[in-house]
Amino acid sequence: MDNSPQAGQTQKGPPDQAYEAPAQFVKGFYLLLTLWSLFCLFLLHQIVQNIGLDPLYGLLMIAFILVFMWYFSLAFAYRIEVWQDGTMRMTSYRRIITVKAQDIPKALAPRFPVGFLKFRLEREMGYLFYQAGNSDLYEVLQLIKSVNPDIQFTNVSIQGQSRS
Questions:
Q1: What pLDDT was estimated at residue 137?
Q2: Within the chain, where are the H helices?
Q3: What residues contact 139, with CB distance under 8 A and at least 6 apart?
Q4: Domains of the chain by residue range
Q5: From the centroid of its chain, how far is CA 18?
Q6: Is the CB of residue 156 less than 8 Å from the CB of residue 106?
Q7: Rounded Cα distance, 151 and 111, in Å
Q8: What's the pLDDT tens digit per position in 42-52?
Q9: Rounded-to-integer distance, Cα 152 and Cα 23, Å
Q10: Furthest-apart CA pair in the chain: how many Å?
Q11: CA distance 127 to 27
Q12: Which residues contact 53 (CB under 8 A, 6 or more apart)?
C-alpha cells in the first residue's frame, strides 16, 4: 500500500506556492543534451579510431561519460513547491528533494533570463530550471524569503533586495 502523498500535496495539504518550469524549456534542454550526447559519441568514436585504442576501452569511456552526464542532468528540478512552514519540495525526473527553507543559506540565479537557479543545500546543490520574470517563480522566492529572511539571493531581486 502506497502511503506517499499525491503529486502536489504533502500531509500538510496543497503547497502555498508552486512553480513549474515551462515544458518547452525543459524539453529544449533535454533535446540539446541529446544532440550533445550524439555529437560526443561521434567525436569520441573518431578519436578512439585515430588513436588506435581497443574499441572496448573507447566504448567504456564513452559510456561512462554519457551515463555520468545524464545521471546528474536528470536531477535538475523542474518543479518547486513551498509551504508556509518553510517546507520545500523540488521535483526532478530522478528524485524528489524535501528541505526546509530555513536551512538554505544562499540561492544563485543565472545572469541570463533562462538557466538554473542554484540552491546551496546542506550537503549538496539543488538546481531548478529558471525563467526570469515568471510570476509563479517570483512568488515562490518571496515565500522562501519571508520564511528565511537570512537567505542571500544573487542575480535576482526579491522584496527590494538588489541584483548583485
A1: 92
A2: 23-51, 55-73, 135-147
A3: 17, 19
A4: 17-156
A5: 15
A6: no
A7: 19
A8: 877 777 777 76
A9: 28
A10: 60
A11: 16
A12: none
